[in-house]
Design goal:
By secondary structure, this protein is an all-alpha fold. It contains 12 helices and no strands. The longest helix has 32 residues.
């Protein structure tokens, strides 16, 4: 419904939104080639390759780092794809909406890989019965959907565990909401402290899931989790540049929802000379700061 009508409709080459397309492609390249590649080389790959050799703080920041890496890689290449589609006259749907600001796992999946989330909902969860049966039937449908969503990434127990963790988290949230509704309780009052706690808990549950997603095996994932609480010691991999990159990337998600759109509109309003200068500066930064050779591409495997 999102793509086929556009294929059938004749496109006008004079109506191509070049400014928005260039903004998306350049920003996506920077996220994918510079940010994702740096975090991978600086801490994620060393820690996950040799979990026994690293301290608890390095493991913690490897988990945080992978959260940033996979978002920068995936949303970056998605932005590139959306931008290239715009140059051909096609409007692709958005795929991310500040996922690390989510307040629970259900909210996370409304914001992360939104096209896959809709596909899982429409072609797995709803055909299984969705939330129309008992709460245990609903829990079963959630678990089946999320475990199959994990297996979609690869036939490995690590992906099953990742999907099951997200399924269990969503089932727990569903049971909590259902229990309050059955008791006739009023919704819990909103407040800044409650929102902060929800976001912190959700982010760390998501990072726990990323450990299983990135680990080479289930035993490797549990080794990392165990050492996260026991392997106290120096953390030479946790450098100031890494801290700035990780926390800066996460902080950007807490900017106002329309901040990126405002910046994009400001770029589009500029003349071709200023746009060209900005794009040239971004490309120079990418070639200067990016890795030598071909940057790693996480989602190539899936």
């Amino acid at each position: 419904g999102e793509l086929l009508p556009q294929i059938r409709r004749r496109r006008d080459a004079k109506s191509i939104d070049f400014g928005r397309a260039a903004w998306l492609v350049a920003g996506g390249l920077f996220k994918k080639v510079v940010i994702s590649s740096y975090v991978d080389a600086a801490i994620v790959r060393p820690v996950f390759t040799a979990p026994h050799q690293h301290s608890a703080l390095e493991i913690l920041f490897a988990a945080y780092g992978f959260a940033v890496e996979i978002y920068a890689d995936f949303s970056g290449y998605t932005d590139i794809a959306i931008g290239l589609a715009l140059l051909l006259g096609f409007q692709f749907p958005a795929n991310f909406d500040r996922p690390y600001t989510a307040r629970d796992l259900q909210d996370f999946w409304r914001r992360w890989h939104m096209t896959l989330s809709r596909w899982l909902r429409d072609y797995l969860y709803i055909p299984l019965g969705g939330g129309r049966g008992s709460r245990w039937t609903t829990a079963r449908n959630i678990m089946i959907t999320m475990v199959l969503g994990g297996l979609w990434h690869g036939a490995a127990w690590t992906f099953v565990a990742w999907g099951a963790l997200h399924g269990i988290g969503q089932v727990a949230g569903h049971f909590r909401r259902d229990r309050r509704a059955r008791k006739g309780l009023e919704p819990v009052p909103e407040g800044t402290a409650r929102v902060v706690v929800q976001r912190l808990v959700t982010f760390h549950v998501v990072c726990l899931g990323w450990i299983f997603f990135r680990a080479d095996s289930i035993s490797g994932a549990f080794t990392l989790i165990k050492r996260l609480f026991t392997a106290w010691g120096p953390a030479p991999l946790v450098t100031p540049l890494l801290l700035v990159t990780v926390f800066g990337a996460l902080a950007l998600q807490y900017l106002p929802a329309d901040a990126a759109q405002r910046a994009q509109r400001a770029f589009v309003r500029q003349g071709w000379a200023i746009q060209g200068a900005i794009l040239g500066a971004v490309l120079l930064a990418i070639t200067t700061l990016g890795p030598q050779g071909v940057a790693p591409f996480i989602y190539y495997r899936f």
